[in-house]
């Protein structure tokens, strides 16, 4: 597994791979890797195999511009040694570990702003977050010169925004969506789960149960209001979870929906357990 610690070595490696006729697939992460990230790597490897051969590069970069002032960038887990061991086992071909100075050059003036999708849902609670994500992902696409990149469906707004950005900027990167990986009890895998108190960890699978209910209600032809009520009822069975938001939106573009849906909708949950905010989502298709 090759390790590139700066932009020049990453660009040289990508040029070499392309010269050898290999496609390049990017798995962008902020480290603290778990099984969910390794699933992104295996989807990247599958894509490469299906598309005539390729190499997978995982980036590990804790991107300062997607953290708000009140969010603790310094406390974000940094587990480089363990991450490299996991990626080696998973068969990643390279790891890109840039420093902040490689990504954000002094005097930089350009940002990428996906205007509407950055401002809705989580974007309202975390001003500037999605601008930071879109900007760093554009840079990672350019530096790795990737042909494709995986993104988890768990961060559904991020995935939707990156698809929109690729379309708007005519970027030649295929986005590979990867379904959420869950623990045996249904809790979506996340580096945040490590910070849950044991009682909260036991309560947290309620999100998955609420999403199961939403999916069943949508399939029965329920209205948006009835789906929301059903989800709220299930979440209320676990008083340790403080519901921050239940959003139901058009699954394709996150626009608002009302009445009885005739298109797939996405149900997005944000629930706080102690100091830890958990998010989860599910696309639910109506019976038509
Ligand atoms: O999903 C993440 O881990 C980050 O938002 C990403 C895409 C690596 C950008 O920093």
Features:
20% strand; 2 domains; Rossmann fold; 11 helices; 40% helix; 288 residues; six-stranded parallel beta sheet; alpha/beta; binds pantoate; Pantoate--beta-alanine Ligase, Chain: A,domain 2
Number of DSSP-assigned strands: 9
Distance between the termini: 49 Å
Q: What coarse outline follows from CA principal-axis ratios?
A: globular
Strand adjacency order, main sheet: 1-4-3-2-5-6
Give the low-confidence spans: none
Oligomer: single chain
Q: In the CATH hierarchy, what is the class of the largest domain? A: Alpha Beta
Please compute the radius of gyration using only Cα atoms.
Answer: 19 Å
Average pLDDT number: 96
Please describe the biggest sheet, giving its number of strands, its sense, and whether it closes into a barrel. 6 strands, parallel
Q: Beta-sheet strand percentage?
A: 15-25%
SSE order, one letter for each helix or strand: EHEHEHEHHHHEHEHHHEEE
Count of structural domains: 2
Helix/strand-derived category reads alpha/beta
Number of helices: 11
Report the CATH topology name of the largest domain. Answer: Rossmann fold
Task: Report the bound ligands by name, code or SMILES.
Answer: pantoate
Helix fraction, binned, reads 25-40%
The CATH superfamily of the largest domain appears as HUPs
The CATH architecture category of the largest domain equals: 3-Layer(aba) Sandwich
């Amino acid at each position: 597994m090759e390790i590139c610690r700066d932009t020049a070595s990453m660009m040289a490696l990508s040029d070499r791979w392309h010269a050898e006729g290999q496609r390049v697939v990017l798995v962008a992460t902020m480290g603290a890797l778990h099984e969910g990230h390794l699933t992104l790597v295996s989807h990247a490897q599958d894509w490469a195999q299906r598309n005539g051969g390729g190499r997978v590069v995982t980036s590990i970069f804790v991107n300062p511009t997607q953290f708000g002032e009140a969010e603790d960038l310094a406390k974000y887990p940094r587990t480089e040694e363990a991450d490299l061991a996991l990626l080696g086992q998973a068969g990643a071909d390279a790891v890109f570990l840039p420093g902040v100075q490689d990504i954000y050059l002094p005097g930089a003036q350009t940002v990428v702003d996906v205007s509407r999708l950055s401002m809705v849902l989580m974007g309202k609670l975390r001003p500037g977050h999605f601008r930071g994500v879109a900007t760093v992902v554009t840079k990672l696409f350019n530096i790795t010169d990737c042909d494709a990149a995986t993104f988890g469906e768990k961060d559904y707004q991020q995935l939707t925004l990156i698809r929109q950005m690729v379309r708007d900027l005519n970027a030649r990167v295929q986005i590979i969506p990867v379904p959420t990986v869950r623990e045996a009890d249904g809790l979506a895998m996340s580096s945040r789960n490590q910070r849950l108190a044991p009682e909260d960890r036991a309560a947290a699978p309620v999100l998955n149960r609420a999403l199961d209910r939403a999916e069943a209600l949508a399939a029965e032809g329920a209205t948006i209001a009835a789906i929301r009520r059903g989800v709220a009822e299930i979440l209320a069975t676990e008083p340790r979870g403080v519901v921050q938001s239940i959003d139901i939106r058009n699954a394709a573009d996150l626009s608002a929906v009302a009445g009885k849906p005739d298109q797939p909708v996405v149900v997005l949950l944000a629930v706080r357990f102690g100091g830890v905010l958990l998010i989860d989502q599910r696309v639910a298709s109506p019976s038509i």
